[in-house]
C-alpha cells in the first residue's frame, strides 16, 4: 500500500519534495526506506538513492524515523547522527495513516548548525517582537490639544497663548502649577500642536518610579547588565526619539540622576546601563512640577544648572481658585466624560449648583472638580445636577499655616461673587452688596485686577 502511495506522488510530487531544503526520508511500516530526496544527499553527504531498500530499524536504530515506526507517535527536535553522515541533524518525524491504517512514517531534518542558526533567528525575531511590544506599551497617546483646553480668565488665556507660541519650536518647556491644574493636558497640547505630533509622546512620572529604577527607566539597559536583566530594555528617552518626553514631577528627581539628565539635555547622547554604545536621540523635553524649584536649589536638592536648562520657557498654570469664572466652562467640558463613567446622560448644572461650586476654594483644582462632578452625577435624579447633589469637603487639603496675600484673597472673593450673581449690572450690584462695598468700589477693583 505504501509503495503504491509513493508511486502516486508522480513526477510533480517528487519535484516538490526534491526542492525542499530539508532532508526527507519515507519508510513503510516495516521500516523499509522507499524514498529519499535530493537534500538528504546534500545534508548527510551520502547518496540518498543508495538508502532506498535499506531498513531504517537496522541502519539507524536510534533515529527519529525509527522511533515513530516503533511507537506510532510523532517525534520533535530529535538530534542524532545518520549513518554515513559527518554532521548531526535535528529531526521531526511523523506517522502516516491511510484509511485509519498506519502505513509508514516520514522524517524532515536539517543539519544541526543550520538548525541552530534558524533557532537563533527565531529567538531574535521573538526578542524584536517583545521590544516592539514594550515600545507600544510604554509609548502613551497625546489626546488633548488646545481646542480641548477650557478657560476664559485672563491669567489662564495668557498661559495658553505662551504654550501655543512655544509649541511651534523645539525649546524645552517647564510647566509650573499646583497638582491638578492640568499640566499634562498642556504638555499633550504642546506636543500635538508641534511638528512632532505624529511621533511618540512618552510620559514619565518621576515621583512614581523609585530612584533605584529611574535611571534604567530613562536610559534602558543591556541584557545581563545586572541580576534579573534577562533581556534588553529600551529606555524612555530612546522610545521618545523624534518625539516628546514629558517629565512630570521633575522636582522629585534624585540629584545623581539630575546630573545624567543634564548631560542628555546638553548632548542628546547617553548609554544604556551595562552598554558601551553611545546612543544619540532627538527628543523634545517638557517638564512639570508643583514644587518650588528655587527653594529646592537653596537647599541643595535641585541642580541650578539643570534648572536653567529646563527653565527655557516657563509656563505658570493658575489654580482653579483664581479661575472661578471658568468653572461653568470647565464643568461643561468634563460632563461628557462624567456621563460615560456614571452610565447616564448629564446635561448640565443648575445655577445654584454652579454658585455652590464658585464658593469653594478648590485645593485639588481640576482633579477635585472632576471628582465632585462624578459623585454628583452618580447621586443626582434626572439629567441636571442640583446644588443638593454636590458634596464639598470643607477645604480639607488647605494647610492651616497656608497664607495668601490680601490682594489675592480680595481678587478671589470678587471672582466668586461675580460667578454667583453674574456679570450683568444687576449681578454686580448684588455682588457689591454681598461683599460689603459700593458698586463704584467694585468697578475700581475690577479695573485694578483687569477682570472682565
From TrEMBL:
Tell me if Phosphoprotein is a UniProt keyword of this record. no
Cross-referenced Pfam families: AAA_lid_14, HTH_8, PAS, Sigma54_activat
Query: What is a GO molecular function of this protein?
Result: ATP binding
Alphabetically list the UniProt keywords: ATP-binding, Nucleotide-binding, Transcription, Transcription regulation
- What does the record list as GO biological process? regulation of DNA-templated transcription
Q: Which InterPro entries does the UniProt record give?
A: AAA+_ATPase, AAA_lid_NorR, Homeodomain-like_sf, HTH_Fis, P-loop_NTPase, PAS-like_dom_sf, PAS_fold, Sigma_54_int
Segments forming domain Sigma-54 factor interaction: 149-378
Gene3D superfamilies found in the cross-reference section: 1.10.8.60, Homeodomain-like (1.10.10.60), P-loop containing nucleotide triphosphate hydrolases (3.40.50.300), PAS domain (3.30.450.20)
Under the heading PANTHER family, the entry gives: SIGMA L-DEPENDENT TRANSCRIPTIONAL REGULATOR YQIR-RELATED, TRANSCRIPTIONAL REGULATORY PROTEIN
Protein name (Swiss-Prot/TrEMBL): Sigma 54-interacting transcriptional regulator
Amino acid at each position: 500500500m505504501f509503495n503504491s502511495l509513493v508511486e502516486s506522488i508522480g513526477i510533480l510530487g517528487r519535484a516538490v519534495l526534491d526542492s525542499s531544503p530539508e532532508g526527507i526520508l519515507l519508510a513503510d511500516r516495516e521500516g523499509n526506506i522507499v524514498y529519499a530526496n535530493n537534500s538528504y544527499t546534500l545534508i548527510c553527504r551520502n547518496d540518498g538513492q543508495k538508502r532506498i531498500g535499506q531498513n531504517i530499524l537496522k541502519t539507524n536504530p536510534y533515529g527519529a524515523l525509527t522511533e515513530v515506526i516503533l511507537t506510532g507517535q510523532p517525534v520533535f527536535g530529535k538530534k542524532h547522527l545518520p549513518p554515513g553522515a559527518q554532521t548531526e541533524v535535528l529531526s521531526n518525524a511523523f506517522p502516516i495513516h491511510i484509511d485509519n491504517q498506519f502505513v509508514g512514517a516520514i522524517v524532515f531534518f536539517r543539519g544541526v548548525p543550520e538548525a541552530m542558526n534558524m533557532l537563533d533567528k527565531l529567538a531574535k525575531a521573538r526578542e524584536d517582537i517583545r521590544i516592539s511590544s514594550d515600545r507600544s506599551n510604554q509609548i502613551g497617546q497625546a489626546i488633548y490639544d488646545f481646542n480641548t483646553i477650557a478657560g476664559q480668565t485672563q491669567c489662564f488665556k495668557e498661559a495658553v497663548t505662551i504654550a501655543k507660541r512655544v509649541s511651534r519650536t523645539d525649546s524645552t518647556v517647564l510647566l509650573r502649577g499646583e497638582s491638578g491644574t492640568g499640566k499634562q493636558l498642556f504638555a499633550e497640547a504642546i506636543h500635538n500642536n508641534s511638528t512632532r505630533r505624529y511621533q511618540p509622546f512618552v510620559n514619565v512620572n518621576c515621583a512614581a518610579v523609585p530612584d533605584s529604577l529611574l535611571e534604567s527607566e530613562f536610559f534602558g539597559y543591556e541584557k545581563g547588565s545586572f541580576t534579573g536583566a534577562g533581556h534588553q530594555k529600551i529606555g524612555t528617552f530612546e522610545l521618545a526619539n523624534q518625539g516628546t518626553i514629558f517629565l512630570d514631577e521633575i522636582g522629585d528627581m534624585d540629584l545623581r540622576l539630575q546630573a545624567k539628565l543634564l548631560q542628555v539635555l546638553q548632548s542628546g547622547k547617553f548609554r544604556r546601563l551595562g552598554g558601551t554604545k553611545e546612543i544619540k536621540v532627538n527628543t523634545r523635553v517638557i517638564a512639570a512640577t508643583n514644587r518650588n524649584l528655587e527653594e529646592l536649589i537653596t537647599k541643595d536638592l535641585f541642580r541650578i544648572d539643570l534648572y536653567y536648562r529646563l527653565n527655557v520657557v516657563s509656563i505658570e498654570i493658575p489654580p482653579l481658585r483664581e479661575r472661578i469664572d471658568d468653572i461653568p466652562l470647565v464643568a461643561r467640558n468634563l460632563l461628557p466624560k462624567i456621563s460615560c463613567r456614571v452610565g447616564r446622560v448629564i446635561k448640565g448644572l443648575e445655577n445654584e449648583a454652579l454658585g455652590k461650586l464658585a464658593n469653594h476654594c478648590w485645593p485639588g483644582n481640576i482633579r477635585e472638580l472632576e471628582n465632585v462632578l462624578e459623585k454628583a452625577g452618580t447621586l443626582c435624579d434626572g439629567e441636571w445636577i442640583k446644588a443638593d447633589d454636590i458634596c464639598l469637603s470643607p477645604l480639607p487639603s488647605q494647610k492651616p499655616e497656608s497664607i495668601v496675600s490680601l490682594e489675592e484673597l480680595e481678587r478671589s472673593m470678587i471672582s466668586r461673587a461675580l460667578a454667583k450673581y453674574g456679570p450683568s449690572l444687576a449681578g454686580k450690584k448684588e455682588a457689591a452688596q454681598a461683599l460689603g462695598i459700593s458698586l463704584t468700589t467694585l468697578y475700581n477693583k475690577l479695573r485694578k485686577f483687569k477682570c472682565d
